[in-house]
Design brief:
The chain is an alpha/beta fold. The chain is built from 15 helices and 17 strands. Helix 9 links the parallel strand 9 and strand 10. The radius of gyration is 22 Å and the shape is globular. Bound molecules: pyridoxal-5'-phosphate (PLP).
Length: about 425
């Protein structure tokens, strides 16, 4: 159904109902032209509506000062809710299950403080081997915080010898084998290196049957693949907002706490005044009374300037709709895969799952040699893609702003790379 031709790509762009969103973004410049950007999985592009949104907050700060908390056009007291509301559709959660705060690793620590409560019997954490380093460090230091030895308390599930992807049956097998000692399963919903998307629903089911809690790192999932955290009964999840969500460098992150835990005011946690009930927050009294919802994990006053770009970007997600974005994403990534299979002049292997239900927008190309060199050649030709040690070029067409034309342009360039030069 796909064709290797520019005319075909152009025709798909004409039919694409999401095509107009491309005009809502700034593309980085190379030699006076828009670069072809496939790094939305690392840092999303700047939506054009961000500047006006920032100017609005600067103006309200200027004109209202402290009264901006309630008197700004978007009263600052409730700023995080301007972001958590559109996130409900993106992650499949009630607004009471969402808290927009801090950054991913901070939120992972806060969630582990609450949901990794090791006992003598149950103290192990299952995670993927080669998880993103920040997640590894977080888990290692949490385990040590409880006086445990990471070598005993952390179980890693790896791909089998000679394979690149983790088999779900291996995850299930470990959960069963360790069912009396597992406290927590913590996986990246999509592995950042291979692009493998896990079946979060069945992992959660199996883990719960074994008596363990389940958390997911959705850094590469949020805004990429729609999920249903509430219905799947996931215990908690965390994410950052600067990848597919286009919230800008260092943007505020997010956390999901399932309502079964979020309503429990006795759930152990680290507290701060912004997580306290609003009715008593400003009484400045002793005794922390957490909100009976995910916002009960908030610590500090709303970081307005760290949320404003996310708020602006989420307006675009709301008008595009997550289902339409996923539809286009599947087609766009399948087209990229189809074109990559025509390439003969350079040697690589696509290690991302072939089944579109087991991946999002990213394809990972594994190079056994000269990968860094090829990435350099791509960069010189105006393609922005990223390199991850030890051997992968990640390519991620984001459906909100990438086109079939971008994908074809990418193909034309790499099909002409002289791999011997
Ligand atoms: C991007 C990413 C992070 C980044 O964490 P920050 O705290 O936002 O710096 C963490 N984990 C994974 C899996 C990621 O992909």
């Amino acid at each position: 159904m796909f064709e290797v031709s520019k005319a075909f790509a152009e025709e798909q762009d004409q039919k694409d109902i999401l095509a107009p969103f491309r005009e809502q973004f700034y593309f980085p410049q190379r030699n006076g032209k828009n670069a072809t950007y496939f790094c939305g999985n690392s840092l999303g592009l700047q939506p054009k509506n961000v500047k006006a949104a920032i100017d609005q907050e600067l103006y309200d700060w200027q004109q209202c000062a402290v009264e901006g908390y309630w008197g700004a056009k978007n009263p600052w007291l409730y700023y995080q809710q301007y972001c958590s509301r559109p996130l409900t559709e993106i992650v499949g959660a009630g607004q009471d299950e969402l808290s927009v705060m801090n950054t991913l690793t901070v939120n992972l620590h806060l969630m582990m403080i609450s949901f990794y409560r090791p006992t003598k019997q149950r103290f192990k954490v299952l995670m993927e081997a080669g998880a993103f380093p920040s997640d590894q460090y977080a888990v290692e230091t949490q385990v040590k915080l409880h006086g445990l030895d990471p070598a005993e308390a952390i179980i890693e599930v790896s791909p089998r010898q000679g394979e690149h992807l983790i088999r779900e049956e291996d995850i299930f097998r470990i959960i069963e084998e360790e069912s009396s000692s597992l406290a927590l399963i913590l996986l990246g919903g999509i592995n950042y290196y291979t692009g493998q998307l896990f079946n979060m629903q069945s992992i959660t089911d199996v883990a719960h049957k074994a008596g363990a809690l389940v958390g997911f790192d959705l850094a590469h999932v949020v805004g990429n693949v729609p999920v249903k955290l509430h219905d799947w009964k996931v215990d908690f999840a965390v994410w950052c907002s600067y990848k597919y969500l286009n919230g800008g460098p260092g943007a505020v992150g997010g956390a999901f706490v399932h309502e079964k835990h979020a309503r429990n005011r006795n759930q152990q946690r680290l507290g701060g005044w912004w997580g306290n009930e609003e009715a008593t927050r400003f009484k400045m009294e002793k005794g922390f009374e957490p909100k009976g919802r995910a916002e009960g994990w908030q610590l500090s006053t709303a970081q307005v300037f760290n949320m404003v770009a996310l708020k602006a970007s989420l307006e675009l997600f709301e008008s595009a709709g997550m289902a339409a974005l996923r539809d286009k994403s599947i087609k766009l990534t399948n087209y990229l895969e189809f074109l990559l299979k025509q390439i003969e002049n350079i040697n690589f292997e696509i290690i991302t799952p072939k089944n579109c239900k087991e991946r999002g927008a990213q394809l990972s190309l594994l190079f056994h040699d000269r990968g860094k060199d090829i990435q350099q050649k791509m960069t010189e030709a105006g393609l922005i893609v990223d390199w991850r040690e030890p051997g992968v070029i990640r390519i991620s067409p984001a459906p909100l702003y990438n086109s079939y034309g971008d994908v074809f342009h990418f193909y034309e360039i790499i099909a002409n790379i002289d791999s011997n030069a």
